[in-house]
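In the design runs reported in the main text, the only information available to the sequence generator was the tokenized backbone. The following block is the verbatim input for one such run; it is reproduced so that readers can re-run the procedure and compare outputs position by position.
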């Protein structure tokens, strides 16, 4: 008998992807609700009580309500939403963040999965702020482009029905929901300017952060030192210049590739992942593996 896992929000974009990643596993027994009961409070409460681990793939308000439903249960929770990412009662589910994070996830009852853009930005910034190469109070700008699956079922329907087209920029009011976690875990004290965009393709993301007045070699060395030995985060060789940066390069994987680009002391640090992979479902399965006492890369 495997560990019992309940995915709340199983038919949503992230939920479906996690389900697909777990379906073939003999060490996991999925608890599923019939379609007419998937939002039924009693059926969900029963599923939470039966599960060893519940994975919340819900909008923020529903994730907060679901966590409250589990408050008195021994069930472990992984929340894919934004609701608990900077909550001190939850462990941030980014295993590669710093020494000790993997062990903290493995021992946690409540784990909050990072956001997709924030996984990229934190992966780039944290080693650089900790090494003193980027000042914690630096004026930072972050650019990102995501495939439209990043906006969940509603945005997928917009693009696939033809109602939305081409590329658009958004969150121009500088209130994007990922900035609090980028600041907290990237160790930056000044809110970065964030310019996100959505492209007319399904999945894949690139995030870039320009850095003036830093040494590309030192930046590359700090990133390489931090991620050496990491199964899922790699740093491209400094001289491996590509004419085109492709946000879809790591689709359907749990990989995140970092690169140091630019010319002289005008450096751009860059990250590519699958927003549905290392940006959501892959990271959730990595955390699930750790919480079940398995190798973090099992089945990934
Ligand atoms: N898409 C992405 O790239 C990423 C998403 N996330 C996060 O994951 C979470 C889910 O996002 P995503 O999968 O994209 O969203 P979707 O809109 O695709 O899926 C959300 C699912 O939750 C269901 N749902 C809503 N309210 C309830 C409720 N009260 N009880 C049970 N089910 C409910 C919805 O039902 P119905 O089908 O009826 O609408 C839907 O199936 C969000 O918090 C999002 O921020 C995190 C990282 C990346
Ligand atoms: C393209 C798009 O709209 N992306 C979403 C972020 C992805 C997501 O759903 O948010 P979490 O990763 O925090 O859960 C946004 O910018 O709000």
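Verbatim output:
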């Amino acid at each position: 008998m495997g560990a019992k896992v309940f995915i709340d929000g199983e038919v949503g974009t992230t939920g479906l992807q996690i389900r697909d990643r777990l379906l073939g596993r003999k060490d996991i027994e999925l608890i599923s609700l019939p379609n007419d009961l998937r939002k039924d409070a009693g059926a969900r409460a029963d599923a939470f009580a039966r599960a060893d681990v519940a994975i919340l793939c819900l909008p923020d308000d529903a994730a907060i309500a679901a966590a409250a439903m589990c408050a008195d249960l021994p069930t472990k929770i992984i929340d894919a939403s934004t609701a608990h990412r900077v909550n001190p009662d939850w462990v941030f589910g980014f295993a590669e963040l710093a020494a000790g994070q993997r062990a903290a996830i493995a021992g946690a009852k409540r784990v909050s999965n990072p956001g997709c853009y924030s996984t990229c930005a934190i992966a780039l910034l944290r080693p650089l702020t900790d090494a003193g190469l980027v000042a914690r109070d630096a004026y930072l700008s972050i650019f990102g482009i995501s495939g439209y699956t990043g906006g969940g079922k509603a945005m997928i329907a917009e693009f696939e029905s033809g109602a939305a087209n081409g590329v658009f920029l958004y969150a121009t009011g500088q209130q994007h929901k990922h900035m609090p976690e980028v600041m907290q875990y990237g160790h930056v004290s000044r809110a970065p300017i964030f310019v996100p965009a959505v492209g007319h393709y399904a999945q894949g993301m690139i995030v870039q952060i320009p850095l003036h007045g830093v040494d590309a070699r030192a930046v590359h060395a700090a990133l390489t030192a931090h991620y050496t030995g990491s199964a899922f985060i790699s740093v491209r060789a400094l001289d491996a210049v590509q004419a085109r940066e492709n946000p879809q390069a790591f689709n359907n994987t749990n990989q995140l590739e970092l690169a140091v680009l630019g010319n002289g002391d005008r450096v751009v640090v860059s990250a590519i992942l699958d927003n549905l992979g290392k940006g959501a479902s892959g990271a959730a399965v990595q955390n699930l593996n750790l919480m079940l006492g398995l190798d973090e890369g099992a089945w990934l």
